[in-house]
Structures are given as C-alpha cells and as structure tokens.
Design a protein that fits this description.
Helices cover about 30% and strands about 25% of the residues. Helix 14 runs parallel beside helix 15.
C-alpha cells in the first residue's frame, strides 16, 4: 500500500504551550486512522497543520510520498486534503448545495449556474451514499445532515484525504452508525481518513489503526484489531479509568423542582414539549434519556427561561419561576450547563477569567459599588481552573484559544464551582471531554446530589445516564415517560421507551 500522508518531527508552540512535540507518523492510502488523546493533547493542532491552517515551527509533511509546504487551506485542498472541523462552518442562510460548492460554484458566463450546481451536488451525494436534501437551508438541517454536507464539501473539492475532528461528538448513536457506514464506503473507494474521537468504543469499531497522543507527543500507534479500550485508555492517561455504575441509590427528599403540565414550542414553532409533568427531589439525580430531537432540549431550555412556556407552572423550592429571566432563575438557585456551549455557554472572544465569573461579576464579592474586586475575582478564577483542571496558559488568555475540551471544563467549572445551586441542569455535560475531565464533572454532579441538590442529567450517552442516575425518564415525541428507579432491568426499559415502544410505567403520566 502507498503512503497517503505522513508527518515527521512536527513541532508547534503557542505562547506558553508546546502543542505538538516532535510528532511523526504515517498513514496509508485507504486506511482509517483514529487519533485519540486527552483534551489539549494536540490533536486539533496537528490536524490544522495538515490542513494548512497552522504553520509548524519545524518538521515536515509528506503527501503521497512528496514533501509539501502548506501555507493555507488552499494549498491543502489542491493536494487533495479536506477537513471537517470540530465545530461546523456552514453558512446558516445558504442551502446545503450552496454551502457544498461555496467558492467553487459552477459558472455560466460569470453567473452561478444553479441547475448545474444542484445536479453536481446531487451526483456526488449519490456516488458516496451521503444523502442530503440539497435545497434545505443549512440552519434547518439536522446535525447529521450538516455534517454530511461538510464531508461532501470536502469531496467536491477533490479530497482523497479526509480529516474529521470529533465528528461523532454531536451525533446520536444512530447518526454515528450512519456516518460509519459512509466512512467505510469512502475508505473502500480508496479515500484515506483521519478520525479524531474521545469515544474509544467508536474508535475500536471504525479504525484500522489508532494513534494515541498525550501532552503533544505520540505515545504510540497500535493495530486496532489487536487492542482494546483498556489498553487505549491506559496509553492516553497512564492509569485506571472510569466505567460502569458509580452511584448508590439515594434516599430522596422534598421536591426542589416541580414542573406542572408545561408545553413548549421549538424554534420552528412546532410543539416540542407536550403537557409534561416532573418532580425532582433534593438529593436525587434524574437522568433524561431519549433520541435527540424528542423535546428534551426544549424542556430544559424552558426551565432556564430560554424558551417561553405555553401553559403550566415551574416551581423551585415552592416558588414559581416560569417566565422569569434566566438571570432570575439562576438566582433562584438553578445552575445550567448548556449543550451548545459555543452558542450559549461562552464568549469566545472574552478572556478566561471573564467567562469564569460571567454569571456573578455584578455582585459581591466580585464587585463593590461600581468597581471590580480583583483579588476576589483572581482567587475564584484560579481555584476553578485548578479544581476542574482547565489547561490554560493563564487567566488573561482569549477563551477561543483553549482546546475544545478545556472550554467545556471551564463552563462546567463556572456553573458547578460555586456550590450554591439547589437544582443543577446538566445537558450533555461531558460531551467531547476526555476521561479525566469526564470523571471530574461526574464527581461534581454526585457531590451536588449528596449535598441535597436535585440534579437533572441530560445525555445522549446512555451509559452515562445509567452510571449516574437514581431514576430515569425518557422523552419521546414531546412526551415524558418514566422508566422508574435504577435496577438491573433499567436499560431494557429505557431502550423500549426511547424507540416509542410500549411498556414502562408511563400510564399515569400521559394525559
Ligand atoms: N490558537 C491557539 N493559541 C494558543 N494556544 C492554542 C491554540 N490552539 C490550541 N492551543 C493550545 O494547544 C494545546 C493543544 O490544543 P488542541 O486544540 O490541539 O488539543 P486537542 O487535542 O484537540 O484537545 P480537545 O480534545 O480538547 O479538542 C492546548 O493546550 C491549547 O490550549
Ligand atoms: Mg480538538
């Protein structure tokens, strides 16, 4: 087999950080190569070097056996390299077809040839079995569809080496399955794929070989069929890892959050949540399962005051909070880790300390009168950074420069760090976070419950829900179904409810 792409002794530093430390490896044509490593290990940096977005300090890149210089993405594209980023980059108000051909549109006497455009996109979509509705606006497309469009965009530009940076972090299990079918087909057609993921189960399922990175270095490359998740995890962190159930069922106390008969619309004004009732008790961890898009996101957004409710009431410790502002709801004792961190969790341009005290800066101890109390702010920010192991060169760095996983730890730290919340709503809190970070955040949720707060845990990762929850409810088609308390049979009940199956103990809940 021929070598598709290789790097030798790549070094890349950022101010205060050695992001890539003499990295060497080589990937063959038609190979699916997984790249794993903890948050901040240097994966994205390396991929950006291969795509011409970062210039290495030293070291060489070879494409198809020839040493190349990559000064920008155009150079990379010309060499047949395509990249789908950790965060999608489609233009929301363009159709998927327009996004796919953006910058290389077929022209007819200087004008864009709309017909040829649609046809050529359709053709390539069929050729690789990547189904997209070409006329749909990017903002209306599902996450899976947006991702397929991103892959098609790369293929349309002639990519035969595809870099996918955490492509499954935003996908449901089913969408991930679909993606894997497509990736296998692409590899069979001779495409080379570099696949970054934190989910070892996926890496084991899809890749031919796995390269493990730690602290900017390559720890090793192993043949995937000859390894297992324990070995990989050990290479990544060099110690024992998490797995299985970590929660003892707790005695549940008074209700801290009561949701009475609420209905909520989604962004397209369709009914997303239908007359849902829920009671969360102090000391309880309530897992919320369900296939993405069944109303669970809108449900928590409504509790947080980010969406109006059409009817019903929401009470925190007996006080009504429905239709209050998000700030008032936070002050009533509700902490929130949103699933879409880049849209509603953080200001990327702001400095690390600004994001860390974002919800609190306007009141003591962080401000007195009209001025900030810097000592308090610095101390609080420092201790959050330490407790949640946010890897950052300092508090005065732009947040957008941190690695994806470290940004997530920062938000979790801000929301969970202050210890005051009576209700914690965590939506996909560990998505895209490495093993150590996941452990830290799960531990925080457990501690909250032990201190008597109620915790709602929304996660697309069913293993996570089952590892932590006392009780599990499932959203299906906008309604809430109760799968009951944790026991040996809970996985089966949850699975059945997720797919709309009958059974379960939901009779008294459905109106
Ligand atoms: N543009 C930048 N400026 C400064 N530092 C950066 C920049 N990009 C990355 N870094 C730093 O380089 C290190 C490696 O980051 P990188 O994004 O490559 O990690 P990663 O392995 O992709 O992590 P994650 O799994 O969290 O996405 C991190 O410490 C990060 O803070
Ligand atoms: Mg990354």
């Amino acid at each position: 087999m021929a070598e598709a792409i290789a790097v030798e002794n790549i070094v890349k530093t950022f101010p205060g950080v050695l992001a890539n430390d003499k990295i060497s490896f080589s990937v063959e044509q038609g190979e699916i190569r997984a790249i794993v490593g903890e948050n901040g290990a240097g994966k994205t940096t390396l991929m950006k070097i291969l795509y011409g977005l970062h210039k290495p300090d030293s070291g060489t890149v070879r494409v198809k056996g020839k040493e190349v210089k990559l000064s920008n993405a155009r150079d990379a594209i010309a060499l047949g390299i395509g990249m789908v980023h950790q965060h999608f980059m489609l233009v929301p108000s363009f159709t998927l077809a327009q996004n796919i051909v953006l910058g290389v549109e077929p022209k007819k006497s200087l004008l864009v040839d709309e017909e040829a455009l649609e046809e050529s996109v359709q053709e390539i979509s069929e050729k690789y079995g990547l189904a997209v509705n070409v006329n749909k606006l990017a903002m209306d497309a599902s996450v899976g569809e947006q991702q397929r469009a991103e892959i098609l965009k790369a293929l349309y530009r002639g990519a035969d080496i595809l870099i996918l940076d955490e492509p499954t972090a935003v996908l449901t299990d089913m969408e991930t399955e679909d993606l894997f079918v497509m990736l296998r087909r692409l590899a069979e057609a001779g495409k080379t794929i570099l696949f970054i993921s934190h989910k070892l189960r996926e890496v084991l399922a899809i890749s031919d070989n796995t390269t493990v990175m730690r602290s900017g270095k390559v720890v090793g490359t192993v043949k995937t069929s000859e390894t297992d998740d324990c070995e990989l995890a050990e290479m990544m962190v060099g110690r024992e890892t998490i797995g299985g159930r970590i929660r003892q069922i707790a005695e549940c106390g008074q209700p801290v959050l009561q949701v009475e008969n609420i209905s909520v619309l989604d962004s397209r004004d369709l009914m997303a949540v239908r007359n849902v009732n829920l009671e969360l008790h102090c000391g309880e961890i309530l897992g919320v399962g369900g296939v993405d898009g069944n109303g669970q996101e809108e449900f928590v957004e409504a509790i947080m005051g980010l969406r109006p409710i059409l009817n019903g009431r929401i009470l925190v410790e007996g006080n009504e909070i429905q239709n209050q502002s998000t700030r008032e709801i936070r002050e009533a004792g509700v902490a929130y880790i949103p699933s879409d961190r880049y849209r509603s969790g953080i200001a990327m341009e702001a400095l690390v300390w600004e994001n860390l005290v974002a919800g609190e800066y306007y009141r003591p101890p962080y401000s007195k009168g009209f001025s900030f109390v810097w000592k308090e702010i610095n101390e609080a920010a420092d201790s959050l950074v330490e407790k949640f192991q946010v890897s950052t060169p300092g508090l005065n760095v732009q947040t957008g420069n941190l690695s994806g996983g470290n940004i997530q730890r920062l938000i979790a730290g801000r929301e969970l760090g202050s210890n005051k919340a009576r209700v914690v709503i965590a939506s996909q809190p560990t998505r895209g976070i490495d093993i150590a970070g996941t452990e830290a955040i799960r531990q925080m949720l457990l501690e909250y419950a032990e201190r008597g707060a109620g915790v709602i845990l929304l996660s697309a990762d069913l293993d996570e829900v089952l590892a932590l929850s006392d009780r599990v409810v499932v959203f299906y088609a906008g309604r809430l179904y109760d799968a009951g308390y944790w026991d040996d049979d809970i996985r089966r009940r949850v699975g059945q409810l997720m797919t709309g199956g009958e059974g379960g103990c939901n009779d008294e809940i459905i109106p």
